[in-house]
UniProtKB/TrEMBL annotation:
Species the sequence originates in: Altericroceibacterium indicum
Occurrences of domain Gfo/Idh/MocA-like oxidoreductase N-terminal (ranges): 39-162
Pfam families to which the protein is assigned, alphabetical: GFO_IDH_MocA, GFO_IDH_MocA_C3
Gene3D superfamilies, alphabetized: Dihydrodipicolinate Reductase, domain 2, NAD(P)-binding Rossmann-like Domain
Protein name, as recorded: Glucose-fructose oxidoreductase
Keywords for the protein's UniProt record, in alphabetical order: Oxidoreductase, Signal
Classification of source organism: Bacteria, Pseudomonadati, Pseudomonadota, Alphaproteobacteria, Sphingomonadales
């Protein structure tokens, strides 16, 4: 393992493209800064909202937390008090639509079980609000299309919470893969999984829309797309689920898939609800760049192999977290009048491939994907 100085030298000597990308702001040239911090209403006060997202507003330049939506009065009371949200800005699912009358809410952030994403995104747009929606965007292509259409009709932006697009090591990996230093990319391996706890909505198909693929395998899929910058043209998948395990009566456990990209790159992807994985590797003709963990909340570790020598790469400390960068990006996109980097179209592309992966596993054959 190399020390920080050596790692940095490796980065600077060999991977200039990567450093440039790292220095790039969240938006490319032409981005306007919002005149004020835009207000977010968080819908669904579960683990991700309360433990990961809400504490991040403190690090935001363009976003602030202004409202809460929950079906549990005790949570509204507790988090309302903790974050200084007045009673007038606390909503439940019945009076949710009255957010239209609250000028302190610019953006609604949907952090609910997957099958509720479409309904609350569409209701938020109809109430005249921009929307940030968690991944997976919804549970079907049809729902994704309805969400895009509702936001477009309302003249509002729609962004999907793909936080890795704002995480410095992932951005660096993209730049390195593109730099040519490893030769043309040949193979990507991407593995994501965890051991799912029983008795939760993720294991109930009506709420989750599917198993590991919808929840965690989507990180393998999305990574192959951002690491190649290409859209896959063919998919082949295989599922393995122990239906005697009480966790897997309605959703899949493991579903691995291969993707073929137009340039000839192949991707081998793991998606699991019964084993822990968080890694990817992009291998070219001259070496590879790999990360483990790759898409975690923090603590990314990157290695590169060039001409047989393996180095660990440590990037300069970035004070802004991926969460704060994601929260700030939507206000910037709104002020700039551009599509967010992870727009509804991005979520829809993943969902089209997810549907094809399920079809491939069910029909035991390769599925051709058409560019859309
Ligand atoms: P969670 O179970 O902790 O929270 C879900 C919330 O929805 C709870 O507050 C629950 O009360 C509420 N809810 C409302 N109606 C419900 C119903 N009918 N059944 C169950 N819950 C209901 O889940 P979570 O881990 O916070 O996940 C929420 C969303 O965030 C999911 O779409 C998930 O994919 C996404 N997520 C994203 C990341 C990420 O890193 N981007 C991480 C975790 C979760």
């Amino acid at each position: 393992m190399t020390d920080y100085k050596t790692s940095r030298r490796v980065v600077m000597a060999g991977f200039g493209t990567g450093l440039t990308a790292l220095a790039m702001p969240a938006l490319a040239s032409g981005d306007a800064q919002p005149a004020r911090k835009l207000g977010y209403a968080i819908v669904g006060l579960g683990y991700y909202a309360t433990q990961q997202i809400m504490p991040q507003f403190v690090g935001c330049e363009h976003a602030r937390l202004t409202a809460l939506v929950s079906g549990t009065p005790e949570k509204l009371e507790r988090y309302g008090a903790q974050y200084g949200i007045p009673k007038t800005h606390r909503y439940n699912y019945s009076n949710f639509d009255s957010i239209r009358d609250n000028p302190d809410i610019d953006i609604v952030y949907v952090v609910l079980p997957n099958s509720m994403h479409a309904e609350y995104t569409i209701r938020a747009a109809q109430a005249g609000k921009h929307v940030m929606c968690e991944k997976p965007m919804a549970v079907s292509v049809a729902e994704c299309e309805a969400m895009i259409s509702a936001c477009s009709k309302a003249g509002k932006k729609l962004m999907i919470g793909y936080r890795c697009h704002f995480e410095p090591y992932n951005l660096h990996a993209i730049a390195l893969a593109k730099s040519g230093d490893f030769g043309p990319t040949r193979i990507i391996t991407a593995e994501h999984g965890f051991n799912a706890k029983p008795d939760q909505w993720r294991l109930e198909r009506p709420l989750s829309g599917g198993g590991s693929l919808m929840d965690i395998g989507i990180y393998s899929l999305n990574a192959t797309r951002y690491l190649t910058g290409e859209e896959p043209v063919e998919v082949m998948a295989m599922e393995s689920t122990d239906r005697s395990d009480p966790r897997f009566t309605s959703v899949e456990d493991r579903i691995d898939f291969m993707l073929r990209f137009p340039s000839g790159i192949l991707a081998n992807c793991v998606s699991s609800y019964s084993s822990n994985h968080n890694a990817y590797r992009v291998t070219g003709t001259k070496g590879w760049v790999g990360m483990e963990p790759a898409t975690s909340y923090s603590g990314q570790r990157m290695s590169v192999n060039l001409q047989g020598e393996i180095h660990q790469v440590t990037l300069p400390f970035s004070p802004k977290t991926q969460f704060a960068a994601q929260l700030d990006h939507l206000p910037q996109a709104i002020a700039s009048g551009i599509e967010p980097r992870t727009s509804g179209a991005e979520g829809l592309r993943d969902m089209r491939i997810i549907e094809a992966i399920y079809r491939s596993a069910a029909e035991r054959r390769a599925i051709t994907l058409t560019a859309k």
